[in-house]
Amino acid sequence: MILNHLTVSDIVWLTIGFGGQIVFTMRFLVQWLYSEKCRRSVIPIGFWYLSIVGSVTLLIYAIHKLDPVFIAGQSFGILVYSRNLYFIYKERQRIESTISS
After folding, report:
1. How confident is the model at residue 50, as a pLDDT?
2. In this structure, are residues 82 and 53 in contact, taking their beta carbons and an 8 Å threshold?
3. 0.85 cut: is pTM over it?
4. C-beta of residue 67 within 8 angstroms of C-beta of residue 24
5. What pLDDT score was predicted for residue 93?
6. d(Cα 65, Cα 98) in Å, to the nearest integer?
7. Residue closest to 78 by CA, chosen among 44, 60, 53
């Protein structure tokens, strides 16, 4: 694809794709900085939210491109990231109910 022959639609979709990739990549920066702050390997909750936002954006781009490999990979990832958030919130509820008991 030659950049000077891009349509407005092409530019919009490339922006969506690159935007999703940037968000998805930012999760590693968040994890790295948080781990440095804690002085141990930690995955903060923001990592999972960035994973979901990045994956959903990339999934939209993949659907537009009709890329079955990319669609399958991002779809599965969204399930994993969502499940991790579920576990985090269930644990928080358990802790809060233990404290208030």
Report:
1. 98
2. no
3. yes
4. no
5. 94
6. 49
7. 53
Greatest alpha-carbon span in the chain: 66
Tens-digit pLDDT profile for residues 79-94: 999 999 999 999 999 9
Task: Go through 64-84 and write b for each residue having 16 or more CB atoms within 10 A of its CB, e for each that does not.
Answer: eeeeeebbeebeebbeebeeb
Q: How far is CA 2 from CA 10, 21, 63, 100, in A?
A: 11, 21, 22, 62
Task: Determine contact, residues 45/91, Cβ cutoff 8 Å.
Answer: no
d(CA 89, CA 25): 24
Which portions of the chain are predicted below pLDDT 70? 1-2
67 HSE (CA, 13 A, CB side): 14
